[in-house]
Amino acid sequence: MNLFADIVELTKRKTWMVLWGFFGLGVVFWGGFQWALAVTNTETFCISCHEMKDNVFKEYRETIHYSNRTGVRATCPDCHVPREWQHMAIRKIQASNELWHKLLGTVDTPEKFEGKRLELARHVWKAMKDTDSRECRNCHNFNTMDFTRQGMRAFDFHERGFSQNKTCIDCHKGIAHALPRGMTKADDTSHMQ
Amino acid sequence: MNKRMWPSIRAVCLVVFLAWIGVSTAQGGEVRTLRGSVPLDGADNAPELTKWMPDSHPLPRAYLQQPPLVPHQIESYKIDLRQNKCLTCHSWGKAKETRATKISLTHFRNRFGSEMSDISPQRYFCTQCHVPQKDAPPLVENTFQPVDAVVQ
To answer: What's the total number of domains in chain B?
Structure first.
């Protein structure tokens, strides 16, 4: 009880100082954590690796998610990092594996990247399929999608696709990056009645 | 002056005259090209900005043996070694479910006349013949006419 009394005595004298100290530390650490998350969630950060800049980023620059009529852009993290905190934390931890392979130089030449592209693409397709294309739906919401304002083909496919429980990635593979070589029939999930 | 020299004198005059015409037209910049009067070593004028036509039903042919036009936008559709975006709908395997026009059976014949099991490599690059349309006036006038049998 002596120790407890001592602590009480200490805090009585320095309560406000201690409280403010903890508060300040909290602000610094939490702010720093959020800042680190925000910085690693930018396109600039993603393409600071030449593996991203020279391969997938170059391809993405020719697509509608980079340049379009309204000027709204979807950058790397918009599609590849979940928005909800718990999913984002998991994805960020998984990214440590990518750091490891950066050190190993697994895909540090265009040839090596091409060699791994099918495997890497399948990972992303599986993740998209498992989450029902969650990252697509951050912007593209079925409930507010007006088929009648779409082109004839989009109208037809979306109407049929949604009624057959398709998810975005089933048909929209390779919309932001080049498709890999060596895709098999099983990789084509766009079949519908 | 010898009368026999007249033909050669006339020929020389003609050559000089034609050369003069050639030089004067070239200097006057009257050689007509799609570039207009922009000098060959100068930067071309920026093309007028035009829009792709919106999706529509199949377009009628404008002349006999015209390759069918693409009645929809094909922006960012890639045709290369890895992929042929056109074939994801227009191939025989997919055409029924996508309700697209099947590619012609003639496209399965290679240049030696052999029938292949899939599209012939020489027909692989669809946009060499099949083109989408823009809302723009024709670059040069023409008198091509569809024949009645194709129109109706």
So the answer is: 2
Contact call for residues B64 and B147 (beta carbons, < 8 A): yes
Q: For residue B65, what is the domain's CATH number?
A: 1.10.1130.10
Instruction: List chain A domain ranges.
Output: 55-183
Q: Secondary structure of chain A: what % helix, strand, coil (to 5)?
A: 65, 0, 35
B114/A contact by beta carbon, under 8 A: no
**Chain A positions in Cβ-Cβ contact with residue B78 (cut-off 8 Å):** 178
Any A CB within 8 A of B4 CB: no
Mean pLDDT of A39-62: 92
CB-based burial label for A169 (10 Å; 0-12, 13-18, 19+)? buried
User: What's the confidence (pLDDT) of residue A91?
Assistant: 92
In a domain, B111, yes or no: yes
Does residue B91 sit within a domain? Answer: yes
Q: Domain for residue B115, yes or no? A: yes
Residue B75 vs residue A86, higher pLDDT: A86
Instruction: Compare A17 and A76 and report the one with higher pLDDT.
Output: A76
Q: Which domain holds residue B134?
A: 51-152
B71 and B6 together in one domain: no
**Per-residue pLDDT reduced to its tens digit, B96-129:** 999 999 999 999 999 999 999 999 999 999 999 9
Contact B73 A179 (CB under 8 A): no
Above pLDDT 90, what percent of chain B? 36
B117 shares a domain with B71: yes
- Residue B84's DSSP bridge partners are B79
Angle at B85 between CA A49 and CA B95, to 5 degrees: 150
A81, A43 contact by CB (below 8 A): no
